[in-house]
Amino acid sequence: MNRNYPIVRLAREHEKLPRLKRGGGAPQAPQKLPYQRQIERFEQAFADLEQSLKNVAGGVDVSTDPRMVVPERALVFEVSGSIERFDVAVQALGFNWLIEEELPDASVTEAELDGEQLMEDLADVTDESAAPKAQVMYMTMPTQESLSKLLAQWKAFKKEKLLGGKAPRGLAPLWNMFSCLLDLRTWSVRDRMDPSIARYVKAMLEEEPDREVLIEFNFWYRKDERQRDRAVATLDALLEQTGGARVDFVEIHEIGYQGALVRLPAAVALDMVQRSDASLARLDDVMSIRPQSAYLPSADRPQDANLRDLGDVPVLTGPCVAAILDGYPVAGHAALQGRLAVHEVDVKTADVPVSSRHHGTAMASLVLHGDLHKDQPALTRKVALIPVLTGDPQSPQESTPRNKLAIGVIHRALQAIVNADPQAQPDLRHVTIVNHSLGDTFAPFARRPSPWAALLDYYSFTHRLLFVISAGNIFSAFPLNQYNDAAEFEAAEAAEREAVIITSLEASKGQRGILSPAESINGLTVGAAHVDESPENFGAGIDPYPTQQMPNLASALGFGVNKSLKPDLLHPGGRFAVVASNVDGGGVTVSPNRSVRVGQLVAAPSTTGNLRHTTRMAGTSNAAALVTRAGVQLADAVDLAYAGDATTWLNKRTRAVILKALLAHGSSWGDIGDTLEESFKHQENWQRRRDAIAKLLGYGNLDITRVISGDDNRITLLADDEIAHDERHEYRLPIPKAMLNNKELRTITMTLAWATPILPTTIDYRGVSLRLVSGTGKGDFWDGVERDKSTQPTITTCEKGTLVHVKLSGSTLLEAANADGIFVCVQAMSRHRSLNKQPVPYALAITMEMAQSVRTGLYQEVQQAIAARAQQRDTVRAGRAA
After folding, report:
1. InterPro entries recorded for this chain (predicted)?
2. Which partner for 391 in 46, 352, 561, 666 could form a disulfide, CB atoms 3.0-4.6 Å apart?
């Protein structure tokens, strides 16, 4: 780090300004269907509801029919778009609000109605487009009283709409729902059973047909504690009848989670996934039945190499800022000894044989030293580690504890961090960045954020933590349609193979999605680049990318929640070889294959007790660990930038987002972006091409060397603050003389990062959104530079998450009229009225740079102008106070 050009602090201009509204009007309303068609379509459904209520009032048991709408059974409204304030309307009727979820457009055809007529109706109701909008599913838990009120409103809707009347005050959203309704049904077994549960049960029983199967039951989270208790008691009673047992239970009020891990006999598990009328599958209190959430890191081949001499442990300076949640490490290993602080919560040292301590040892090694192939300085801060993986003496395989819910293990580990006694556990006091190189092996992200991701997002916002999360590894094969067999693939030219693999990987991205909790909206999700420092080549193996720094073959691909950008970053994660396999009937598939010759060199356990043992490994876990390492290195630069403050920056509400912004600030697509742009030319729409590239690269490879220190021609500015709904914060940037009256290449890079409260029951999920705009509220900031659309994700995709990274460049003449500077603004908008007064922390990093052809003195000029502006503001404020 060049201490002559440190990061420079930037303060905002005013105390408070109103948000500048985006143009374009209000969000488009959902499509309303013809009134008469709605009456015809749902008259019978509401008639059945009325009869059901009469039966319940008369003491008739109708609960045996799973299609019947009855009290305490989840009710689903599917509509043709999001209805503003619908949750308020149903709560006014007395419904216990559960969740809302957006469904893909294609699911419209699956409605249990007149499918073809429905599509025609949707096409006829608007001249704007014949394509239906996305469906939205609203789920509530009705009582007898609320169902009676719903029925009354349906009758009023029929009558008043026929006469041209309007909805009663406060119930307009409910009447809008009647007009946009596509389906009204109960939460069915089809909804409840996770799509992967049948495959999971089959896989568990393949080798041991009589083994018991661990399955996760996630309940509808009810506000009433007595209702939650009754739901668990009902499950326990059914388990007793079927010979099963509840082995773990976790309730996390903050994210609305209630789940049980149950053990079922093989026959019962098979019956549940094969028969829709199985008693466990029809349990109304259960929202989802899914495979046990568990992480099973893949085993890497051990090497015989010994660790090079790392020298003595240096004097550790600065507080510990990073923690690792992972496997139990070999703490006495030469690479880790004296540098690691292990804190036990669920997993104890006796639970994990030393010979099984692979993953945690490797991750700690990467965080502390990086790839051991390369001689680079070790971190000068201690790193904390909380073990969350156990081992088996009979196998090298590690996993989350077998008889515990993974979310509970992670929750208790995080509680240990945020509730640590600063005197007894000083290493946990300032932990800000948490390495989470773990994912749910059995659960790729699909539409709805997982409880695991919601947990991380809750801790991110509430406890000022930045989670660095691995995107996940996908080892399944994908097809290469251009080759007839494996021999033809292997005989092809390397450049041709590379091009075919790139286009085929993009075509198969739908089956290679990120693994939960990588969809976390507040965290940084990291994909693995096909890069390591191994001096060897693949030998007899085939290198899939001999010329490009693509994501390695196993790295999972995006997007995330509401099509937000995931992974956020790409970072070296080691290389995999490619292996081709013939397909019956012709064709070839390829998959990633480990090679003992390549990968990143890490510390490893030894069967002989050798404490200098190493191995090579690859994957997104590695990439996340190296990003965590970069975050700790950035902390040193932040220390320098905030050196004059009365208190450490680690006590600020903005500490996590400062590191988040700076980690992303040096990222870019680089040359691989140009290569992919050419490879994806078959997608004629440029925005779709940008999205296709972004699913692979995120914002690209990070380079913190451009962030931690500037140069004569480059300066990095850093602002941090808290902002609430409808507020705007202004920042004034001076324009250095070097950027005026010339055509030299100039660039400005801006990165905005924030942490948001979450709304787990809503489609939005992200509670507060921020935008980066000019002083006039637009996305074009000043003359002389513009956004290069071909080298970065679209701004629309960027703004769906909590990280916006934009690069502007240009060489057109910049007139001296702009010499007074320009304004860059951060403004906020809550996604739900309950968060209108909730301030959120953010950080803004800005780098101004000129081409290196001429020494300009840009750094000193901007630094002095910012210092002078700050003094001017302080003088004005002092005068007002007087």
Report:
1. Peptidase_S8/S53_dom, Peptidase_S8/S53_dom_sf, Y4bN_pept_dom
2. 352
